[in-house]
Amino acid sequence: VLFLLLAANALPELALQLADRGIGLSPDLRARAYAFGAFQPDLITGRGPRFAAQPLSMFLTYGFLHTGLSHLVINMLGLVWLGRLILSYRTPETFILLYLMSMVGAAEVYSLIGMQGGTMVGASGALFGLFGVYVMDAGLFASSPPQAGRQFFRLALATALLALSDVASQTLLGGSPAAWQAHAGGFMTGAVIALLSPPRFCAMQ
Hints:
Elements lengths: L1 H19 L8 H9 L4 H4 L8 H8 L7 H18 L5 H22 L10 H14 L10 H26 L6 H17 L9
């Protein structure tokens, strides 16, 4: 499963790297890939899509595009680390479903409070979702006796802290703006799904 997801993320960027260098592919391939596959909130609010299904398909395609090799490598390291942890107690089918649902949830939050007129690419929203799954399955937000309200409050607080850390890192380090809305949305999506659908057994307990 991890190999499948690694390939799905790496192959598009490798093709774009070749195109950027004019090796066998059109040099404008990256621009066209972003135009057709990046997440663009404006497509939801009215700007004409390039094909009929784009306002829906972009909720998934954006997560398999990256801005360069460093962006890809950082995300794939996170995928391998979190994937190995979660796959020790959840099935491969469930893992892929969690990954994709977190990706969609991240995009949904970005569409609500993200930057209009911009574009978003990258797997980090899905990875934050996997992180949300992990912390819930590890019992980090567990209360005894279980209290759903307290768990959701802790989730909201953790999500806010993640968003603030994204903003702070962007301010201090500069570089490409981090889509903190997608990170927070992915984390909350994964955590809530894990809370509502816990694993049958957990190797960490």
